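Researcher: Next entry in the queue.
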Amino acid sequence: MAGNCLLINHEVLTWHDARSHCLGLGGDLASIPGAIDQTYISAMVMDTSSSFWVGGSNVDKSSGWKWSDGSAFAHFYWNENQPSDHEDSCVEFVADNSRWNDGSCVDLRASICKKRGEV
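Model: Structure for this entry, 119 residues:
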């Protein structure tokens, strides 16, 4: 996570509104391009039982799953029987087991923002 700051936004929003909130802070919804990011975010949310929007989506069905910040979508931490491919699917990070679900992007969730920079 060197070079990045993460922020948990506890306000429940749709995925698109959560992304707008993060962009307004100068970042984006968190991407999870590998095991280091997955482990770090797991530690951040371990004492909650919530699900959090992160930056993955397949809103553009023609290009498949991608991170909103352009990071490579190369590692997958899906829950069993996921993704279930909703019509408009966005990635939610499930704190209970540190896995991902694809949820309807209009569902209301807390979110995690990522911004380049040092604390």
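Model: The domain at 4-116 is CATH 3.10.100.10 (Mannose-Binding Protein A; Chain A).
Researcher: Noted, moving on.
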